[in-house]
Amino acid sequence: MTHHAAGTFEVKLTPQAPDNSAPEFAIPARMSIDKQFHGDLEATSNGQMLAAGTEVKGSAGYVAIERVSGQLHGRTGTFILQHTGTMNRGTPQLSVTVVPDSGTGDLAGLAGRMNIDIAAGKHSYTFEYTLAETT
Predict the structure, then answer these.
(1) What is the domain count for the chain?
(2) Phi and psi at residue 105, in whole multiples of 5°?
(3) CATH number for the domain including 110?
(4) Chain-wide mean pLDDT for the chain?
(5) What is the pLDDT of residue 28?
(6) 95 bridge partner residues
(7) Predicted pLDDT of residue 134
(8) Omega before 28 within 30 of 0, i.e. cis
(9) Which domain holds residue 46?
(10) Average pLDDT of the residues in 110-114
(11) What is the pLDDT of residues 3-32, one digit of tens each?
(12) Distance (Å, whole) CA 24 – CA 52
């Protein structure tokens, strides 16, 4: 059975030092991710992001992994989200999915996809998920 969750979140991105001080290694940029989710998902998350832009205005890409810890519709546990995003001359494409078998506690067996919306500087999410029985 598919469940739906929705709410808002705040995110703090903190630039991290490049892996090497040589300029050619400054791309991709590295950032730490700290989030606070509200609504059907009451949780915090921490993660890492790699991002790179191009010389073409509005074109870029990023990947990220974040560990979410809290309650989803009252079920307590953790899970991992994997992000893959591109911006093609201003047109965004984003995929945020639960890493298979990453759910713990009451969230063991969690699978799903999260959609993120940014409007007027505010972040919101919708999350379609299933909770399978684990063995």
Answers:
(1) 1
(2) 60, -135
(3) 2.40.350.10
(4) 92
(5) 79
(6) 84
(7) 53
(8) yes
(9) 3-131
(10) 98
(11) 999 999 999 999 888 766 555 545 678 999
(12) 12
